[in-house]
What does this fold into?
Amino acid sequence: MINKIVQSMAEAMDGIKDGAVILLGGFGAVGQPNALIDGLIEHGAKHLTIACNNAGVGRVGLARLMDLGRVDKIICSFPRSSDPVVFETLYREGKIELEIVPQGTLAERMHAAGSGVPAFFTATGVGTKMAAGKEHREINGRTYILEQALRGDVALVEAWEADRWGNLTYRRAGRNFNPVCAMAADLTIVQSQHIRELGEIDPDHVVTPGIFVDRVLHVPYGDPSGF
Amino acid sequence: MPDTALAADFKPLTRQQMAARAAQDIPEGWYVNLGIGIPTMIADYVPLDREVIFHSENGVLGMGPAPAEDKIDPWLINAGKQYVTLRAGGSFCHHADSFAMIRGGHLDLCVLGAFQVAENGDIANWATSENDTAPAVGGAMDLAAGAKRLWVVMDHTTKTGESKLVRKCTYPLTAVGAVKRVYTNLATLDVTPEGFRVIDMAPGLSFESLQARTDAPLRQG
It folds into this structure.
């Protein structure tokens, strides 16, 4: 019997190595797998590269992971937030490397990695400093730049519902980067508000099919407004 | 020419008036992404019976206005991370699909704020120097390169009076040759192959006064 549901955070985090590239779902606090980030802190892996849209708020979650010196590099589109104190301090002191990626390019780099597409051409960033050093090609009269797929060793994902095969649904704008992170990593770990029986999630409503998921931890924390 | 010599009897548009002016030009049926700041306010000036569908890059299509205090859904935010609502017919999607709408040319219009717009349509709106501390681009480059049309709403000049409509952008670019129209507190202008063409001006403002406040050369009519 396939059962991707794990019973403890330690089991969920098992095997994450120092130096791992970690894809992190979420847009601001909505859809961000905060419990798994705390689990990663507890797990202790360091020299991490984190790819996600934002660079943490306040001193909790991702900001705390960075504050503890576990993150060598962050790949994101918008490191600023309402309270980016940890990131900005580390960045100013030269203690963290930053790779800025346009938001759509970031999503597509993960999507491509999950789809077996090693690189793709896009018009986003042409003529800007994002294009520096990248291959340019004219296709049907328009100039594009080549962007590389972004694969993770690990994806940390927040779902609304999950079953033991790893089928997932999401809630409202909490979907955001989660499905593309899930498909782009070697080890996809999910925290889910609800655990459903197999067959209970309407097949028409499954957003991330279980093939993209390795582990599911039940984390019924409520709503994201407290973060 | 000293500015006092140009002091004419005109009133620059307020932020609300700029948003309302841009809203006039959005027809029913368009799919529209509004950037942070004055562009976000445009939605308030599109009459409810004119069906314009608003997109937010965090995966919301059919976004409605801000909810009442007691109707907040903590899972429903816009790209500015403010609470919003979903109109009947609205839907959610993941980030790659949301940006497929943007990058695949499916949005009829994107309206952004900007630091500078050049007469060839170049836009600079994400960083004010080459060495910005922790630059943050978000979805601006995707929107500017991907939407069918890009309009900009911004003040005509900086707080210190420098023109934001320029011959050539001096700030880092967001996209090249992308802007089609600019709404400022002084005028509405199209970006044409010949440069900026004035469509209308703040009441009481003369073309000469507008030109005197603008770095780039303007054309009338």
Chain A touches chain B through 52 residues (CB under 8 Å). Residues 5-123+145-221 of chain A form a domain with the Glutaconate Coenzyme A-transferase fold (CATH 3.40.1080.10).
